[in-house]
Structure formats: C-alpha cells, structure tokens
Amino acid sequence: MMGRFVLFSLVAAALVSLAACQAAPVATPAGPADAPTAAVVAGQATAVRSAPATSLPPTLSPTADPPTVTPLPPTATPVPPTSTPLPPTATPTPSQAVSWLGGTTLLGFYGRAFGVAPILGRLGFYSNADAMAKDVDTFSSEIHQVNGGKPVLPEIHLIYALAMPCSGNDDCLLYFESMDPHLVDDYIKPAQQRGWLVVLDTQLGRSDPVTQIDRMIAKGYLKYDNVEVALDPEFHVVPGHLEPGIPVGTITAQQVNDAQALLDSYVRKEHLAHRKILMVHQFGDKQIDDGVPFMIQDKTDVKDYPNVDLVVVADGFGGPDAKISKYNKMTDGEAYPFLHFRGIKLFPPNPYEHAFHYDRPLLTFRQVFGLDPTPQKQRVKVAPDVIIMN
Q1: What are the structural domains of the chain?
Q2: Among candidates 327, 352, 356, which has minimal Cα distance to 342?
C-alpha cells in the first residue's frame, strides 16, 4: 500500500525539479512507470488517475511502479487550421451566452502539458499541437461516424493545478505557471486560432473551487472565450489529512453551485460569446454506493445557471460493463434532473506505465454512443457530450 505514496512522491519531486529548471530539455523516458491513480468500482475495478496514496478503502486498488517524468518545454506551435468542423459562433444575448456543447461532441486530450509526464495522460505523448492534431483528426473521424454526424470540437485538457503532498500551510497544489509561465501564448492562443478549447483542470488540494476559479480569473485566463474549467474532487484534501486523495476527496453541491455562480457572473460581466463549461470528475456517487465516497455530496441540490454548462464526467478505468454501468448511474437524468451534459473518460493503454491501469478492453466509440452493448448487455442510455482521452 506504500507503493502509491512512493510513486506520487517521485512524480512530485520530478515536477518540482522541472519547475526549477523550467525550459531545460530532458530525454524521453524509458522503463516502467505508473500514473498516480486511485479508486475502483464494485465488481470490476474502475480506478482513477493521478493521485498519491498510502492507504485506500477496501474497494480501492493502490498504484504500483514509480513513474519516470519526461519534462519538455511546451512548444508554441504554428497554427494551421485543422479539418475538424466546428459549430458556428452565435451572437450572445445580453443575458445569456450560447453553448459550445449544443449539437457538438467535445473531444479532450488529458495531461499535464505537451511533452511532460506522459504517465499522467495522453497529452504528454505529444511534443506540440501539430502532433496532437494527427490524433484529433483520427478520433474525430471515428466519432463523427457514430455520433449522429455532429461536429467534433477538440480540447486541450491541462492539469492546471496538480495535487502534491501537503507541507505546512500550503494548498498542496503545483500550478502550471511553475513549469511554464506562458500558458496563454503556448496553449490558449494557439488553441483559439485552431478553433480548439482549453480546459484548466484543478485537483483542488486544500483549496476550494471558488478560490481556484478566482485565481484563473486573476491570471487572465478565463477572459478567453475558449478557456473552460474542470474540478477533480478526488484530490480535495480531507481535513486532518496531508495526502490528496487519501482518503478520496469530495465537494459539496453548494461548492459546485458557488463555482457556477462565479462563472455565470463572469460571463455576463465580460460579455463572452459562449457559456463557460464546468466539468466535475466523478467515480463515486450515491446512485452507485459501492464504498467509494460520494464525490458530489448532496448532488440533487446542484442547480442550473444560465451561462454555465455543467458536465458530470464519469471517470476511472476498468472493463466495459463496469464503466457503462457507472456512467449510466452517475448521469441519470431522473435522479439528477439538473444534468444536461455528460462526459466519459477513456483510458487507452499507456506505454509509460505497467500496472495495467487502463480500460481492458477499451470501449469502442459505437459502445460509447450506445449503438452496441457490452458483453454483459450494458448499453449507454444517454450518449455523452464530452469524451476525454487519458
């Protein structure tokens, strides 16, 4: 059970070293590695991504194998447009902006940064946006064939605030700026010119959703119409503990509502053309009740806000039956009538980790969109609006 803490400490040490060196190039990693992850599903393991851990609930599986981090300086990329069709930009009304997600499938690529820590997610596989664009075209073409012909909108899903072991009175987070202070020029503007979105994902640590969003606003990121926000409750530090994810963290419905209210007000104040997307990752839910903490407490109290598109993302890896079963329960519109948009995270095999923390087998896009059942006849009830490739 100590393997997970050692793993996380190694990732932390490597990224802190990277922050000190910033742009120093490093060779491509070799040998076994594993992403910090935690959690399972009842019956069939569905663990989640990046986190430290020394002990887990009985249904959770610790991570093994220390990772090798590959820090490379993010590369500002020329921005020739891709062939991905994008929804037209509608003119917002004075009181309500338009949705990026209306009639669109969002395709995300998750990770710390281009060329950095590929063990944390697929984004680290790519040296720059040009390299990512090749997979964007491949996956977009496959999705377009099964999503009813909707356009596919790519997004760069950055781990903006990475959870770290707590020290003193810090917030237990390593921010993206410590590694690359040029987030706007290296990611946001190039994505904007390509017609892509950027999602800034915070793992919360000892902070809270409103504080994290306030930071993003103060840094000037959210004034860009193509920048969105994601919350990862798993690593919200439980009072009295020092390790994010041990035990698995949660947020309250009120915290989700406060975050939405802040984003809603900001969209109106800045007269942004589009609503802000707020994603919340989950793998524990009252509708599942498999021993994993309910990651949005009092979830039925979550509200709608006119300038925010809230997306509940079914997170975690495992077999097709467990993933689809959990997805259907966490995104049940009868249990959670506020839900209009849904997401699912897929975990293809990662050559940088050897603990089998990936989907076995990977869901096909036909299964993701409910066209085919799983081996045990599980079928997606409502197709996702967001697909994130880990």
Answers
A1: 3-389 (3.20.20)
A2: 327
Give dist(CA 138, CA 158) in Å, integer.
21
Helix or strand or coil: residue 256? helix
Beta-strand ranges (E) seen in the chain are 105-111, 152-163, 173-175, 197-202, 227-231, 251-252, 276-282, 296-297, 308-314, 341-346, 386-389
Residues 216, 200 contacting (CB under 8 angstroms):
yes
**Parallel/antiparallel/unpaired status of strands 173-175 and 152-163:** antiparallel
Q: Would you place residue 166 in the very low, low, confident or very high pLDDT band (cuts 50, 70, 90)?
A: very high
Q: What pLDDT is recorded for position 384?
A: 98
Q: What is the pLDDT of residue 95?
A: 57
Q: Amino acid letter at 318?
A: G
Nearest to 379 by CA among 318, 320, 311: 320
10 has a pLDDT exceeding 70: no
Q: What is the 3-state secondary structure (H, E, C) of 263-319?
A: HHHHHHHHCCCECEEEEEEECCCCCCCCCCCCCEECHHHCCCCCCEEEEEEECCECC
